[in-house]
């Protein structure tokens, strides 16, 4: 046995002795390393980029703001410029900057609860506050979530009309990430907003990725936002900023939110790095997002064709025609086997087809999220099919 083969065998035996958690941690480290060294990729998540990569964003700061102005203090200066920019893009009177989206939406909805006299918030069971915020609405802000459905789709107007109790607000996540980045049709969205107002509830959009929705709705941002009383947006999920969020709405609501922002500890002494990165993202990434969405549809079709040609029993791209530049891919294999094959493919070819983890909703099924960004625009459909064929070879040998 050669030295290389002996080393590979010893390494494989070592991995077998690891616990499931240890193996997954090692796989994550390998995936991140492969991402950083990849020559070709569809999109690299912000979390996988180096500090040097992230700091390079500031090279464009002078293009979006006068750097000879004084630094911000407790929400003035560049933070106010960003707030005005967001309010203008969304067609609202004003906007308030927050360090996190979790804080931003709690504050917005507790302010609405004070105005309506009703702390109940109707929302999807797969919405971000229910899935990823440790019950913050009820535990921190005195709000009472009312789950309308847990099905992997958007809410319907009939479901809103059929609620058996009054609610103060309806929160809609656009797109609904945990259901596959799905959006309603424009007609459906309009009807849902109307149904909420028939019940005298305000409409709040969880628009963390709303920036990506204009192609699907075939409407500009301000027309989409006009359906809601308030709109939350994120600066890092689509725009590559360092973090941060904003809520846009009526001036009186924004004034009240800023008071609560202070109480929640969100009026940070200086926020200029985050604010500048958000302005850069609005300048550079926002205009590119429609191209990412359109190309994601090319990639989705090529993935389906590639797996069919490789003899995979079935493949599901969800939604079938992506609503944004992000979508789900489902495969009929064990998630650990798929994840190992994906990392090996990236390590051996330096082509990163899958940059995000693989989950196992049930045994024998694997699902991941595909994110098409600037790097992915260079991929043709043939490029995608070739990468799928290379990956499928490794998948078959790892099962």
Question: What can you tell me about this protein's structure?
Answer:
The chain folds into two domains: 19-48 and 288-398, Aspartate Aminotransferase, domain 1; 55-284, Aspartate Aminotransferase, domain 2 (3-Layer(aba) Sandwich), CATH 3.40.640.10. Mean pLDDT is 94; it is low at 4-14. It is built from 16 helices and twelve strands. Strand 5, helix 9 and strand 6 form a beta-alpha-beta unit. The radius of gyration is 23 Å and the shape is globular. Strands 2-8-7-6-5-3-4 form a seven-stranded mixed sheet, sandwiched between helices. A three-stranded antiparallel sheet has the order 9-10-12. A two-stranded parallel sheet has the order 1-11. The protein has helices spanning 3-17, 20-37, 51-55, 78-90, 101-116, 128-132, 136-140, 157-161, 186-198, 214-217, 221-225, 251-263, 272-284, 289-309, 335-349, 381-398; strands spanning 40-41, 94-98, 120-123, 144-147, 169-173, 202-207, 230-234, 245-249, 316-318, 326-331, 351-352, 366-371. With 399 residues, it is of the alpha/beta class. Keywords: Pyridoxal phosphate.
């Amino acid at each position: 046995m050669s030295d290389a083969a002996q080393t590979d065998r010893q390494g494989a035996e070592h991995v077998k002795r690891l616990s499931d958690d240890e193996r997954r941690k090692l796989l994550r480290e390998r995936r991140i390393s492969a991402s950083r060294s990849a020559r070709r990729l569809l999109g690299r998540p912000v979390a996988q980029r180096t500090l040097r990569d992230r700091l390079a964003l500031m090279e464009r700061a002078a293009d979006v703001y006068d750097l000879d102005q004084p630094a911000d203090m407790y929400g003035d200066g560049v933070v106010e410029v960003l707030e005005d920019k967001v309010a203008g893009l969304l067609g609202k009177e004003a906007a308030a900057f927050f360090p996190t989206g979790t804080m931003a939406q709690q504050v917005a909805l507790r302010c609405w609860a004070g105005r309506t006299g009703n702390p109940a918030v109707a929302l999807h069971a797969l919405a971000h506050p229910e899935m990823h915020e440790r019950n913050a609405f009820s535990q921190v802000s005195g709000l009472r979530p009312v789950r309308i459905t847990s099905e992997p789709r958007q809410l319907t107007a009939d479901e809103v009309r059929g609620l058996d109790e009054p609610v103060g607000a309806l929160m809609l996540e656009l797109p609904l990430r945990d259901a596959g980045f799905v959006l309603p049709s424009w007609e459906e969205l309009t009807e849902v907003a109307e149904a909420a107002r028939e019940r005298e509830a305000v409409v709040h959009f969880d628009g963390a990725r709303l920036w990506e929705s204009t192609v699907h709705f075939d409407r500009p941002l301000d027309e989409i936002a006009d359906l809601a009383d308030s709109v939350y947006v994120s600066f890092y999920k689509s725009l590559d900023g360092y973090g941060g969020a904003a809520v846009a709405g009526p001036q009186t609501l924004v004034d009240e939110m800023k008071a609560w922002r202070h109480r929640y500890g969100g009026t940070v002494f200086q926020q200029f790095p985050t604010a500048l990165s958000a302005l850069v993202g609005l300048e550079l990434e926002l205009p590119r997002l429609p191209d990412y969405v359109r190309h994601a549809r090319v990639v989705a079709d090529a993935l389906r064709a590639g797996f069919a040609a490789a003899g995979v029993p079935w493949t599901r791209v969800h939604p079938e025609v992506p609503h944004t530049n992000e979508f789900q891919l489902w495969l009929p294999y064990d998630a650990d086997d798929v994840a190992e094959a994906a990392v090996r493919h990236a390590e051996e070819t330096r082509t990163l087809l899958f940059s995000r983890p693989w989950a196992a909703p049930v045994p024998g099924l694997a699902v991941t999220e595909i994110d098409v960004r600037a790097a992915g625009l260079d991929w043709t459909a043939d490029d995608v099919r070739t990468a799928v064929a290379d990956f499928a070879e490794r998948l078959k040998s790892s099962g």
